[in-house]
Amino acid sequence: MFLALIQKQIKLLLRSPSELLILLVMPIGLIFILSYALGPLMEGDTEISKVEIALVQHGNQEEQVEAFIQMAKDFFPITDELKGQITGMLPVKLLEEQIMENEELKEFVHITKVSESKIDETRNEKEFSAIIEIPENFTFDFLSYQFLNGEKPSFSVYLNEGEQITASIVQTIIDDFQHQYTLNKVLSENGLLSQGMIVPTPEISSTIKTIQSQGEITSKIYYTFSMAVMFILFIAGTIASQSFLEKDTHIFDRILLARIHPITYLSSIIVSTVILAMLQTMILFTFAYFIFDITFNHFDLYLLLTFLLAMVIGGIAAVLSSLNYRYNSASASNVFSNALVAILALLGGSFFNISSLSPGMAKIGMWTPNGAALDGYLKLAQQVSLSDLLPNITNLAILLIALIVLAFLLFPKRGGLE
């Protein structure tokens, strides 16, 4: 009899074309639309364009060094070694050398020296990621600040707001040099910068990594999984509505007269929902495999995650059915399908990657069945192991237990009959 109840639930759904349209055709259509409409925005061109820096220097750097050396002779002896240190610590020269001598950095960072007479023209053209303007006597003032406790000099950096990524790279480079200047000053003031001492200069290096062990999350992959976990929620509302229709049409009364326990009936709702949820997900994944060429490595882990998600959906269907029967109304399943599914989809990241907008909401989303499953599917798309899925599996298992217990507690002993 239990199997007959399951078959009955499945046949009821298969005989409803409108429900099948929502559960199968609509997610496929949305996967197509969202993948192609938002694909360019989501995937974009991730290659960093070349960082172009314009260097505008007022005055002659060599003349300023010589002028400082002549002045400094009145305060301390100037040896050839000290001259070499002075020449080696000039900020503008150091900046150029660090970029030009670094094999990796110079591939995407280029410095162009611009005449001071063309600075206004350079600003207006906006072809550079940043413009570094060195004021008159900057080198002389810098050396005076380092060795003679003079006033701290400064130079101007104009970042191109239209190129945020490359501008931020320039900002990082400048911050590194500023840190080095501060270090030199502190060492000098505390008598730690002795003659012959070599203060390490900032080594700017970059490590370019291509992660081959992890798959790329394309828009097709993302929206295949996000739509699958969203539309699987509709199965719970659909089954709960159908089960209440059986009560409304007195079919449930005949089931009770056949001496079938209400808990057995509720269990059949859970099992039939699990079967339908698994079938829906497998159909969508098969479609994605052939149409979008999405591979499903570690298929056993996909199956495990899908089964757990389907079990949770079965628990939701049971809770909604219990509420419908207890209050003799289909309001619970209707509210769930019409409102709560959209909220869960938003929190779970079905519409967009919510972690990039709000990490706090992303943590909440991990406690929604669709959010935990979506995160797990995306991990599997990057070819992770079972240990990486444990947080997702744990969350789904906790939700499953809570929903099943709640459903059996809420379901009336005689199906709400007086």
TrEMBL record:
GO terms for molecular function: ABC-type transporter activity. Residues 20-409 form the ABC-2 type transporter transmembrane domain. The chain crosses the membrane at residues 20-39, 221-245, 265-290, 302-323, 335-354, 393-411. It is found in: Membrane. GO terms for cellular component: membrane. It is a multi-pass membrane protein. Keywords: Membrane, Transmembrane, Transmembrane helix. Pfam families: ABC2_membrane_3. This is ABC-2 type transport system permease protein. It comes from Ureibacillus xyleni.
